[in-house]
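Quick sanity check, Large ribosomal subunit protein bL9c:
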Amino acid sequence: MASTASATLSWVSSSWLNNNHFLTKTMNSEATKFTEKTLFLTVVAQKKAKKTRKIILKEDVQELGKKGQLMDVKAGFYRNYLLPLGKAQIVTPSLLKEMKMEEERIEAEKNRVREEAQQLALIFETVGAFKVKRKGGKGKQIFGSVTAQDLVDIIKAQIQRDVDKRIVSIPEIRETGEYVAELKLHPEVTARIRLVVSAN
């Protein structure tokens, strides 16, 4: 009787242990699945947490960009570095509107300056030749040479226009004849004028 009770107890114990092992294994498996899901969700949340800000630079920032440039930067970089030093500001619709108006104003001013330069070039080119007289030497030789300053003075005398001698490109002139000088009135506009050099 005692051996039967012992066998029953033994069977019950081993059965309970086996069931408990199965339960533990199942719980561990569920815990692993739960952890994997949690880990996956955590990673996704970290990716969404990376935020950027659309800013405009108020001044040149080395290795980032030039003044007036629009760009996206990390929120922390803006908050901790650019904002405290006053190097940038957040882009707003009103700021974008102001920027667009300023760009249009600058573009209109550039067009006006270019058109003025084109009109001045037309005046220079329709005047005909500017005449320069120098003391003559042997043959076609003249004493001295004709310089950019000489041409500036002649333009002032003939058509009452002030020209900066730094924009004048003139060939070397040491004898009588006809030459072409260039006036760089604008980065996109160059006037070519004829220059007739004669001897006294």
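Posting the structure with no commentary besides this: The radius of gyration is 43 Å.
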